Design the sequence.
């Protein structure tokens, strides 16, 4: 949305105060000017509007009012009214309104987001609960619109909140769709992040899915290395069922390479475990 320091100064000041404020800001660098103006505007907000600004700043994209109401909610009141506080943020230029496909959306400028979150962190506030709530908003949207990109937005907010297990679970559900639709690099990146930030079975599943993707792309060497790492994790966990599954996958890679004796050996090892488990 259109935004400039001079325009913002007009929004947060009144009458002769505008010229006086801009004169004081003149010697400062652009970002310092912006943060001084934000501080000036922020000081004029009441508690509810300040809280709405902080929680709205969690979203990096424009969102509808229902998303902002959800962010202000809790277990007792999931979506409280925010009309007055939102109107105040719009009046002071701390939030902007836009229309997209006949839907009214609200956004917070990048510098305003940085300011609001910096203020909160200086006061020792933990932003993780708000990041989790933003993720939950997108998960609820997916139940209605079945939109994969909303699901991945939920993943990103969980990841930023360091809820790595939940983020990895979403990647497990989404990576095959991404690969099928041609977003190979994105799928690989998300799977690698999941493998790097989780432990145990979750890490093994992420690495195994990544191995499968490399296998499908014809990178046999990387697939074999990853599958071998995954097998070790499942062996350490005592998860013999998944050890058998990985042995089978290793056999497939060797078979595709024409290394039939090794493939037969791996298939036989997988079969023996499955017989022992009664599978």
Sequence:
């Amino acid at each position: 949305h259109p935004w400039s320091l001079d325009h913002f100064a007009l929004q947060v000041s009144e009458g002769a105060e505008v010229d006086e404020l801009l004169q004081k800001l003149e010697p400062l660098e652009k970002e310092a000017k912006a943060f001084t103006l934000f501080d000036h505007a922020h000081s004029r907000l009441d508690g509810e509007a300040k809280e709405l600004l902080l929680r709205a700043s969690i979203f990096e994209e424009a969102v509808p009012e229902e998303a902002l109401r959800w962010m202000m909610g809790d277990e007792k009141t999931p979506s409280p009214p925010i009309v007055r506080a939102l109107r105040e943020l719009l009046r002071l230029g701390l939030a902007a309104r836009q229309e997209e496909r006949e839907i009214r959306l609200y956004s917070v400028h990048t510098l305003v987001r940085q300011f609001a979150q910096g203020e909160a962190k200086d006061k020792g506030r933990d932003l993780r609960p708000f990041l989790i709530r933003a993720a939950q908003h997108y998960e609820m949207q997916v139940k209605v619109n079945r939109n994969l990109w909303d699901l991945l937005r939920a993943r990103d907010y969980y990841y930023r909140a360091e809820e790595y297990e939940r983020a990895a679970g979403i990647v497990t559900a989404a990576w095959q769709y991404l690969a099928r639709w041609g977003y190979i690099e994105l799928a690989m990146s998300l799977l690698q992040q999941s493998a790097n930030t989780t432990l145990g079975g979750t890490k093994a599943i992420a690495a195994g899915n990544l191995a499968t993707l490399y296998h499908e792309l014809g990178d046999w060497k990387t697939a074999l290395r990853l599958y071998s790492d995954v097998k070790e994790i499942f062996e350490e966990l005592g998860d013999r069922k998944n050890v058998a599954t990985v042995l089978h996958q290793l056999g497939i890679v060797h078979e595709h390479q024409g290394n039939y004796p090794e493939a037969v050996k791996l298939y036989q090892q997988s079969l023996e475990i499955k017989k022992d488990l009664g599978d």
Summary: The chain is about 70% helix and 5% strand. Residues 176 and 187 are 8 Å apart (CA to CA). The radius of gyration is 26 Å.
